[in-house]
């Protein structure tokens, strides 16, 4: 190792109060593996991993990377399915220890560190009788969730969660600390609101606008045989537009919560965030009026629930320790066009643990000052899920084939469930994507941050 490189290493180690793990050194491999929630870990090896204890560690790491020609990749909650923060020529900044949450109940705002996960936000806010549309998986990192748009609980009504970012604290490519809101350093806030994995700064803290919690969360669920997936999703495309935006409406093909049931089934559920139980019952009426009476494997109507119970259900559906691969499209397709293809995906699922999502996200929206731009009313996603590495190839082929079959119906992808390095299909509209590139060139001229995976020139 050259003397300059050695001196650089010593300077970084002296500056950082958290942990520094060099490739090949003790603790490195564990830190690398722990940084990815998915049990499928990319075979990519950062030059160094810095687990930051605070904002100053972040700046020290960015300075080191800039001075030594390394790209900076960032990991907050580590839930991105593809672990794209792992790459060979980089300094990986692990922000999982930036876990502060400060709530101002009067102003209805919270300052939340980038290492915080959804459940922690929900619990901190519940103490103040406040609410934020956190992600469905309780341990999903808030940072990546917000950057990807943020399709959380009651987002149909409150908007993608990124609309509720009031400001961000960032460390720039030059290692400067900036507070960014709609009046100052506005480019960074614009990018944080849904600009996804192509940020041109490290966001260390999000300042969030908060909401009053719903008076009642009530859910109705119906379970049908797997071979009804096309029929059920077809019915959904008629019902979805009739529902108020406080009703979250999804169909999934996945193992049902029926003790002893073997295999996958078609589950459709409607969850309403209402002012009262009585109002919830009224809002769920179109969902309860199905044409499938008598064909249900299970039917639960008007079940009062809460955020913890719903979080546990998501953990049952997407357990940690499994090997995941997924892909998705936003779509405006008609029922005739897409529902036979959903049935086809259900018929060819390589194992019953895999999943299909068909989600109603409602009418088109007008974004605030935001990079966010790709949403369409319907969201279709497929997940290859299993414990056995021998199933990976079959899952990869099924996910690729299912998405290829609907590619002509795509209105873009959602960052959250995408492998942008493998298939880059408009996670932002073209003008917003071009603006992200223009801002990256302005705020990160040396290319300290890698930009979007899979896009040349970014
Ligand atoms: C079980 C499960 C459930 C999920 N449920 C939902 C859901 O309900 N709704 C939804 O929208 N998504 C959901 N997702 C997807 C999830 O939002 C994304 O995977 C998101 O990226 C996770 O955020 P993270 O901080 O954990 O990710 P990370 O893997 O830490 O980050 C993802 C990428 O974002 C960028 N990034 C992260 N933090 C920063 C930062 N501080 N500064 C700059 N760039 C940064 C980096 O490019 C990084 O590679 C779910 C994922 C899983 C695994």
From TrEMBL:
Keyword check for Flavoprotein: yes
Ranges of residues in domain FAD-binding PCMH-type: 42-213
GO molecular function annotation: FAD binding; oxidoreductase activity
Cofactor(s) listed in the protein's UniProt record: FAD
Alphabetically ordered keywords of this record: FAD, Flavoprotein, Oxidoreductase
Organism superkingdom: Bacteria
Keyword Oxidoreductase set for record: yes
Family label: Belongs to the oxygen-dependent FAD-linked oxidoreductase family.
Protein name: FAD-binding oxidoreductase
